[in-house]
Amino acid sequence: MARPDKAAAVAELTEEFRESSGAVLTEYRGLTVAQITDLRNSLGQNARFRIVKNTLTKIAVKEAGVDQEIQDLLVGPSAIAFVHGDVVEAAKGLRDFSKANSPLVIKGGIIDGKSMSAEDITKLADLESREVLLAKLAGALKAKQGQAAAVFQALPSKAVRLAQALADKRSQEAA
User: Fold this and answer.
1) CA-CA-CA-CA torsion for 55, 124, 116, 20, nearest 10 degrees?
2) Domain check: are 93 and 159 in the same one?
3) DSSP readout, 117-173?
4) What is the rounded distance in angstroms from the CA atom of residue 50 to the CA atom of residue 28?
5) Residue 1 pLDDT exceeds 50
6) Could you tell me if 116 and 175 lie in one domain?
7) How confident is the model over 18-35, as pLDDT tens digits?
8) pLDDT tens-digit profile of 78-126?
9) Domain of 165?
10) In this predicted structure, what is the pLDDT of residue 2?
11) Do 86 and 160 fall within a single domain?
12) Is 106 in the same domain as 148?
């Protein structure tokens, strides 16, 4: 029978996997406590960085019904950043921190139930933030509306010019 503290840890991890929009697995070997604290602070409210035991995490992954490919990544000292906000922003924070602190290695993760490799997480981090992408979309939609308005405005004026040209041609032929 499982010890109550381990059962509680598994239940907590299972709940984290179910509630989070993403989870990024990292290896933290070589980081000091101060560096881990800095990482947690840099992620802010967007993500929760937890050092986990691989055996308990494997059980939690199974209970949460998460993609089983993540179990292959649970080797060596593991920590997981559970993302509760913008996944791109959290991925950027982890990528930037790993560039500044080489001991932090991004192994991969799960975003919206789909497993992702370390390269996929890095590509995700290269995306612009949600706000910037929404602003670009709004700008593109506004430009298309302006183009549509110009087309609709041009149709009547072209029809009037065509009618005037036909009238001028008939008057020249009559004369």
Assistant:
1) 50
2) no
3) EHHHHHHHHHSPPHHHHHHHHHHHHHHHHHHHHHHHHHHHHHHHHHHHHHHHHHHHH
4) 10
5) no
6) no
7) 888 888 888 888 888 988
8) 888 898 887 888 888 888 888 888 888 888 888 887 888 888 888 887 7
9) 130-175
10) 65
11) no
12) no
